[in-house]
Structures are given as C-alpha cells and as structure tokens.
Write a structure and sequence with these properties.
single chain; mainly alpha; 6 helices
C-alpha cells in the first residue's frame, strides 16, 4: 500500500514537472521571439539614426559652402541631429508597447508579431490559469504566422484571425486589467469568477485561432494534392518514345 502511494506521488510529480517544463519552454520561446523583434527594431532604428545624422551633416556642409554658418550654426546643426536621433529612438518604443491594431497597410505577418509581443508583455499581470492559456496561444503563433503570411489580408479566415488578435483578445485582457484586484476572484450570479471568465475567453480565442490555422493548412494540402493529381494525369501516363 505504501509503495502504491509512493508510486502515485512520483507519477503526479512527473506530470506536474512535465507541465511546468512545457510552459517554461513556451515562455522561453516567446521571450526569444521578443528579443529577436527588439533586436530587429534596434537595427532599423540605428540605421535611421545614422541616415539622419549623415543627412544633417551633408546639409550643414552644403550651407557652409554657400554662406558661413559660424559656431552658432554648427551648434544648431548638432542640436538638430541630436533631436532627430532622440525622436527616432523614441518612436519604436511607443510602437512596441501599443496593442495590435487592424490597419489596411499592416500585413498578416506583422500583425501576428505585434500580437505575440502584446501577449508576452501582458502575461505577468494575469493569473496562472490565464498565463497557461496565453502560453498555448503563443506556442501556436509561429504556425499561424506561416499560414497567414501566404494569405491576403481580405481573406475571410485572415479577417477572423486579425479581429481576434487586434480587438477581441486584447480587449478582453485590457478590460480584465481595469478590474480592481479584490474583485477578480468574486463569483458572479452564474457561479463564475472574473479569473475564470478570462481563462475561458482566452481558451475560446485559442480554439478559433487554431481552427483558422488548421483550415488554412488543409487548404494548402488540398491545393498541393490537386496540383499533384493534375501533373500525374497530364504527364504520368504518356507513352515513352520507342
């Protein structure tokens, strides 16, 4: 009897460890993707800063060849370069913390990246069950991005995914964050707490995003099979020359 209890305890510990390891791996992957996005943004910002400084320098030289600018003109050029650099450095920071938004010029791939970044930054403020749902959503985003990248933004499936990533799921998380902490565990008339409603809403959104990704993938598989059958029927049965 004691041996059975020990074995059950060990099995339960193994299951918990596997769950924690899976979540930790998902969180590490999300952090890695966020670092990659930040590094790419820093590279683009550094390039823009360098171009702006060079442009100010070239403009200063041209003006100096036409008329003397003196010490005050030189200091004004330096101040202009510093101001432009500060403005360009500050702009990506505001973009990074902003929730994803549906705009006609934002492609599906960048939309997924912005949503992934939003989830990564929102995760610490959510309860553990909601964090687990966010981890599952985050884990499927690379697959969703791969399929959505090949689809037009006006595609019906893409529109469903874009609304979820830009409006519905961020709106759910933001509204939860506005509720005072003391009220989040209170059970309502239906016997459900705000924490549970948040988790259920995230689970429903995850299921829909997974459905969109699966449907798009099945469409790609069907298109490939159709192309393969066409080539086989067109060229596979051709008699070889004598």
């Amino acid at each position: 009897m004691a041996t059975d209890k020990v074995e059950r305890a060990i099995a339960r510990f193994d299951r918990i460890s596997e769950t924690l390891d899976a979540r930790g791996g998902t969180a590490r992957d999300a952090a890695r993707r966020e670092r990659q996005r930040l590094n790419a943004g820093l590279g683009r910002t550094a390039g823009r800063v360098g171009i702006s400084i060079v442009a100010v320098g070239v403009l200063t030289i041209i003006v100096g060849m036409i008329m003397p600018i003196g010490m005050f003109g030189f200091l004004a050029a330096v101040a202009l370069a510093v101001g432009l650099a500060a403005l360009l450095i500050a702009m990506p920071v505001r973009d990074a913390i902003a929730p994803p938004a549906v705009t006609p010029d934002l492609a599906n791939g960048p939309m997924v990246d912005r949503f992934d970044s939003y989830l990564y930054r929102s995760r610490p403020a959510l309860p553990a069950p909601a964090q687990a749902e966010l981890d599952q959503i985050s884990a499927m985003l690379p697959r969703l991005k791969e399929t959505l990248t090949r689809v037009e933004t006006l595609d019906s499936a893409a529109q469903d995914a874009r609304r979820l990533m830009s409006l519905h799921l961020p709106g759910l998380i933001d509204r939860y964050a506005n509720v005072p902490t003391a009220y989040r565990g209170v059970v309502d008339g239906e016997g459900i707490s705000l924490n549970q409603r948040l988790t259920d809403g995230l689970a429903a959104g995850r299921a829909k995003l997974s459905e969109v990704a699966d449907n798009l993938a099945r469409g790609d598989v069907a298109a490939f099979e159709t192309q393969g059958r066409f080539i086989k029927s067109r060229y596979g049965e051709t008699d070889s020359p004598a």
